[in-house]
Each structure stands twice: as C-alpha cells, then as structure tokens.
Amino acid sequence: MSKEAVMSMRGIKGYFIFRQASPFDVTQLSVNLTNLRELVGPYHVHNFPVPSVRSGQCSNDNVGGHWNPFAVDTTSPTYPAGPGSTHDKYEIGDLSAKHMSLSGRSAFDMTFTDFNLPLFGQNSIVGRSVVIHLVNSDRKRGNKQTENMGSMGISFSLA
Ligand SMILES: [Cu+2]
C-alpha cells in the first residue's frame, strides 16, 4: 500500500509518501519538501484528517494530537528528544523525533525506514493528517494546537 500527502502551502511544496507492502513489512517514508526557508521543524501524523471542504488550503483546523495509540508518555524524562532510539519508544506519529527534524533546512529529500508506522490495521495512519510545525514549536506542546505551517490530509482511498 502506498499513501501520499501532497502539500503546497505558504510557498512550501512537496510530499510525504508512505509505503508498506503488507502488515508484516516495515514502512518506507519519503519526504521531499522545497522552499522551507528554515521556517519549520517538527512534523507529525495527527489524529484526524483535514476537513475535506478546506483541504489544500493552509489551515489551523483542529486535527487533534499526535497519533499515539499506544499512549507513549511524551512528558517522561526518558522520551527520546531525537532520533536514535528504537521506534517503539516514540509516539507513532512523532515522525521528526523518530527520523530527522526539518529545522535549519531550505530543502529536504530523505527516505526513512520506520518499524512502527502502520498503514494496515487498527493503528494505521491512513485517514489521518500530516502537520508541519514552525521551528519554534515545542514538541511537548505539539499535542495541543500550536502554530502549524500547514496541515494536509493523507489520502485514504483504500481502493
Ligand atoms: Cu504535530
């Protein structure tokens, strides 16, 4: 299965592609973004889709907190501040902590392997949203509504 979230907001253009061949395979996450102007940092899968009536537009719509079906405690002192821990230690949706922040970048073109980012089953990210946050957003406040650089829906047509 392959799902794509395409964005073109506030001058930023690019996409996230999520690929997982079966529930028993790892997920490949490809991130390609241009014209970031060093404005953004964290990016996450949030709980709810961007309302379809406004999708494609820049939005601060409430898409809920980070997708975290295993209730990993991000306020714990042992919660990893960045990449390097096994993926089960992070919220499923905390993509930038698991892989790499966008901060300080003008462009970004990377592919990551994620052992805990399902496109199948009850913990799937399909039908949710990807949110890119301004660089000065606090990760621990990321569960609340902070300034978003733009939200975009992950396509969830399952044909
Ligand atoms: Cu977020």
UniProtKB/TrEMBL annotation:
The Superoxide dismutase copper/zinc binding domain extends over: 13-151
Q: What is this protein called?
A: Superoxide dismutase copper/zinc binding domain-containing protein
Q: Where are the transmembrane segments?
A: none
Q: Which domain of life is it from?
A: Eukaryota
In alphabetical order, the GO MF annotations are: metal ion binding
Entry-linked PANTHER family: AGAP001623-PA (PTHR20910), SUPEROXIDE DISMUTASE COPPER_ZINC BINDING DOMAIN-CONTAINING PROTEIN (PTHR20910:SF1)
Q: Which SUPFAM superfamilies match?
A: Cu,Zn superoxide dismutase-like
GO BP: superoxide metabolic process
Whose protein is this, by species?
Answer: Xiphophorus maculatus (Southern platyfish)
A Pfam family of this chain: Sod_Cu
The record ties this protein, via InterPro entries, to:
Cu-only_SOD, SOD-like_Cu/Zn_dom_sf, SOD_Cu_Zn_dom
